[in-house]
């Protein structure tokens, strides 16, 4: 049989891969761990021998014989073509190789996210840059075969190879992307590696970051619950596997469609970790100031509930349009976050909403809700009388947060209309109110007077705090 020769001379060998785990391509006696998906007959070539053989596909292995298995995780995958038709694939790991020919498309689609491929440019074309992070850049990439668009997260290897912790971190991120298959968590399709780059191919979410949907408008309570529920659902799934995200913030939550909160997806698992009682991780103090739980900044041992605190911050932002610790000064922001004081006394919200915020934003993690408890809270489960809806909130004010200012150039931020998802709901509630115009004006005037009073009181408190700060030495956070 003629086939495309398998050569990696122009790219890298497996022993030079960032994902080289030192394991063999072959492993043995996995009968008790092997979960069978399906079996097929293929033409197989290995060790200069060729034969027709029945193989069985599992979750992370291919059963070759009764006691012998092929390891898929982090093996190099080469897809073979003849005259633009797929005819098979090759797997290699630590200089051990097997070639498999036949109808392999379905098998490859099911396991290619477990393997490492080498020829990114043969399958994808970069369209445009859509994001920038500390460790990687994100581009929109088009699959040359099916013409579908994906997100390509591209890491520079020269940066990763400088420190062993970076290699460990990217391996962990890849492991969690493969493990956490959930509708509200970013999906990994393929992994590529060459001498210069590592590339993760994931879903493309064209609805933008979550905060674009409420950067100009604080949401009504029922809308906040709609936003928060899929986030908690995804986090509860992660926690069920003993993993926390540790960097929950609106920028790490994407929507597949603009303002479609039912398409919410968590991204960036770069700081995700398996919880340990010892509390020792690659990075202990991590996350984004303004969203991180106080115990993380205080260098205390922490548990899975740090994610719940971040969810509480996002809920507060969605409801009020303000970040509770917002400051133009970074040190002040960190200090506020460290202290963790958030007042809910003057919050115009239902008792269920206040209780949800109080119990997710508790400084004491022992009193804080778990993700499962948060998912069952009345504010999230939603029911008649659970939420307050104010017909004047979105219509009379435009509340800008620090986050919205940072992304004011985004097209969705320039749209002055109310999000499409909720136009009908808002109109329905508006029609139900028959308040005379003069009563509305009185309410607006009263609200302005109260806000002016609160601003004066805040200025007085701020003056006192500045004097106290001059006397006391604040902790230094890097």
From TrEMBL:
Gene Ontology MF annotations: ATP binding; protein kinase activity
Protein kinase domain sequence ranges: 124-380
InterPro entries according to UniProt: Prot_kinase_dom, Ser/Thr_kinase_AS
Coiled coil: none
Pfam families tied to this protein: Pkinase
Entry-linked PANTHER family: SERINE/THREONINE-PROTEIN KINASE (PTHR24347)
Protein name in the entry: Protein kinase domain-containing protein
């Amino acid at each position: 049989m003629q086939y495309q020769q398998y050569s990696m001379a122009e790219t890298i060998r497996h022993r030079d891969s960032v994902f080289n785990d030192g394991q063999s391509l072959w492993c043995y006696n996995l009968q008790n761990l092997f979960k069978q998906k399906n079996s097929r007959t293929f033409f197989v070539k290995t060790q200069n021998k060729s034969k027709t053989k029945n193989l069985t596909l599992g979750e992370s292995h291919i059963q070759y014989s009764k006691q012998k298995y092929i390891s898929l995780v982090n093996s190099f995958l080469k897809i073979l073509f003849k005259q633009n038709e797929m005819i098979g694939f090759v797997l290699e790991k630590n200089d051990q190789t097997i070639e498999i020919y036949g109808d392999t498309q379905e098998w490859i689609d099911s396991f290619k996210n477990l393997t490492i491929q080498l020829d990114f440019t043969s399958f994808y074309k970069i369209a445009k840059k859509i994001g920038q992070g500390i460790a990687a850049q994100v581009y929109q990439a088009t699959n040359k075969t099916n013409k579908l668009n994906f997100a390509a997260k591209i890491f520079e290897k020269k940066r990763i190879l400088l420190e062993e912790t970076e290699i460990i971190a990217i391996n962990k991120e890849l492991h969690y992307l493969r493990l956490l298959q959930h509708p509200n968590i970013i999906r990994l399709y393929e992994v590529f590696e060459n001498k210069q780059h590592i590339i993760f191919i994931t879903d493309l979410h064209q609805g933008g970051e979550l905060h674009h949907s409420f950067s100009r408008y604080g949401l009504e309570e029922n809308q906040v619950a709609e936003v928060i529920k899929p986030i908690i659902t995804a986090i509860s799934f992660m926690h069920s596997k003993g993993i926390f995200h540790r960097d929950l913030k609106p920028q790490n939550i994407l929507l597949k469609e603009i303002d479609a909160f039912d398409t919410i997806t968590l991204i960036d698992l770069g700081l995700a970790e398996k919880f340990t009682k010892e509390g020792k991780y690659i990075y202990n103090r991590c996350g984004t100031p303004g969203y991180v739980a106080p115990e993380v900044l205080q260098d205390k041992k922490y548990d899975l509930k740090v994610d719940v605190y971040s969810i509480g911050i996002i809920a507060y932002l969605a409801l009020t349009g303000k970040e509770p610790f917002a400051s133009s000064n970074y040190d002040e922001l960190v200090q506020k976050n460290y202290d963790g004081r958030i007042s809910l006394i003057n919050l115009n919200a239902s008792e269920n909403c206040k209780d949800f915020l109080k119990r997710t934003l508790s400084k004491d993690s022992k009193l804080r809700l778990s993700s499962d408890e948060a998912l069952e809270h009345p504010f999230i489960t939603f029911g008649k009388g659970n939420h307050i809806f104010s017909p004047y909130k979105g219509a009379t004010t435009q509340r800008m947060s620090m986050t919205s200012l940072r992304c004011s150039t985004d097209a969705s931020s320039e749209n002055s209309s109310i999000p499409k998802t909720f136009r009908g709901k808002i109109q329905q509630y508006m029609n139900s109110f028959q308040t005379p115009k003069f009563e509305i004006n009185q309410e607006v005037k009263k609200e302005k007077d109260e806000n002016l009073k609160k601003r004066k009181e805040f200025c007085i408190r701020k003056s006192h705090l500045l004097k106290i700060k001059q006397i006391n030495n604040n902790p230094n956070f890097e």
